[in-house]
């Protein structure tokens, strides 16, 4: 397959104000630590690279499927998806993960099933809050969705990611992102790439307070059940993680 022409990509993006704004917002965020702000779409595309740009286009395509009312309802979802993605990128670099762009993609798309679930089920956000509230070591967030709706956002996200032709291991990570306790309780060497991606995601979700933003819960029940296993897997002490969390929040993740 021929290499994509970044100049052509930049020219096409420049014709879409929403996508142009999203691109510039990301590249000028504190996570990239640039001395001077960038206003050129071409520069932004060159800095972010083809994979990240394509992922952002896919993310914008979800918005295109939504009504104005749904987009407003999901304002908190759009914001936290980008926060989690940037936090995944930062964490991946800090722990020495070689595929930081994959961690970014997982952060951006792990909940891509949520807006599609809301489109199908108008009361979905209420169900999601109940799912977060009742989550514990025995009950996954998706278990409540399965009981009430006969499907869940992780499954919908998996098939959406496959339709975008994302790598299969990324699709598997999306499908299993609320199955972390079971995966990390298996201490064999099986699924090491999946475990690494999920470890980064679980840390990022906690740093960005997804339990509060999406689930309206003060306590992060899911993180509490996997915290020790995740930190042990990536080789971080509680003290190291707390310091890392504070440094990332200072960059703008909430």
From TrEMBL:
Pfam families: HDOD (PF08668). It comes from the Bacteria. Residues 1-180 form the HDOD domain. Coiled coil: none annotated. This is HDOD domain-containing protein.
């Amino acid at each position: 397959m021929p290499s994509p022409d970044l100049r052509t990509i930049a020219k096409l993006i420049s014709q879409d104000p929403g996508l142009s704004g999203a691109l510039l917002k990301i590249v000028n965020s504190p996570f990239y630590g640039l001395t001077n702000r960038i206003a050129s779409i071409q520069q932004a595309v060159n800095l972010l690279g083809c994979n990240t740009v394509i992922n952002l286009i896919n993310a914008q395509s979800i918005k295109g499927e939504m009504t104005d009312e749904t987009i407003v309802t999901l304002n908190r979802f759009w914001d936290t998806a980008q926060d989690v993605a940037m936090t995944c990128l930062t964490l991946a670099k800090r722990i020495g993960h070689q595929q930081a762009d994959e961690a970014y993609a997982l952060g951006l798309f792990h909940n891509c099933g949520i807006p599609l679930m809301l489109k199908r089920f108008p009361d979905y956000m209420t169900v999601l809050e109940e799912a977060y509230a009742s989550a514990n070591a025995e009950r996954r967030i998706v278990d409540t969705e399965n009981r009430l709706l006969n499907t869940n956002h992780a499954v919908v996200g998996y098939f959406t990611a496959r339709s975008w032709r994302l790598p299969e291991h990324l699709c598997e990570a999306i499908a299993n992102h609320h199955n972390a306790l079971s995966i990390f309780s298996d201490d064999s060497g099986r699924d090491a790439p999946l475990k690494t991606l999920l470890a980064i995601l679980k840390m990022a979700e906690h740093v960005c307070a997804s339990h509060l933003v999406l689930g309206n819960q003060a306590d992060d029940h899911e993180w509490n059940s996997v915290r020790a296993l995740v930190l042990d897997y990536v080789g971080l002490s509680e003290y190291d993680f707390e310091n890392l969390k504070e440094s990332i929040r200072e960059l703008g993740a909430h």
